[in-house]
User: What shape does this take?
Amino acid sequence: MDLTVKKKLLLSFLGIALILGIWSIDRYGKGMDSNSVSKLSAANMDQISSSSENAKAAILEKENQLKENPGDANLRLELGNQYYDLASELQSSNPEEAVLDFNKAVTHYQEYLKTNNVLRVWVDLATAAYYGNDEATAENAFKKAIQIDSKDDQVHYKYGVFLFHSKKDYPGAVQEWKTALALNPSGQDAERIKRLISGLEAEIAAGQEK
Assistant: This one.
């Protein structure tokens, strides 16, 4: 493959990766459409900072409650969700802190899952671990989620994102997205998934031909 073709393929992969990075940050079942993404991107830093400080205050209150009730699984889940959402908000303005908060979310989700085997929490654990740079935990959690319900389209979609970004397993990602599409062919993101599959398959085929 000559250098020009390699550059074109790299740019195409980066374009798909950018779409996935924006589209997949939300927690399980908490959608983020293109309008909400635009609003988030347009928010000024003061607004983001104010929102983050409010979130941190709420987290501190929950952490204090947890000290008084360390066995409260629901508090663990709430804290996991709060750290996840805070980390998502901080990814652009403070990526280092975002990674730390994603890992705190992972810790709380893991504690919750010791006594509760809930699909959506396994998915959120996997996604938080992925954004927290813990590939092993992410992959194990995705596989656990698929074991619980292999017919959940969001699980397969997000696992495909993980395979694309972390493993650079492009055929594997395509297969997961095809499974997600087959499970929910009329879902609100179906057309977007089709375009991603088509684009990535074309790039894989072009790379094999060169």
User: Anything to note?
Assistant: The radius of gyration is 18 Å. The longest helix spans residues 45-68.
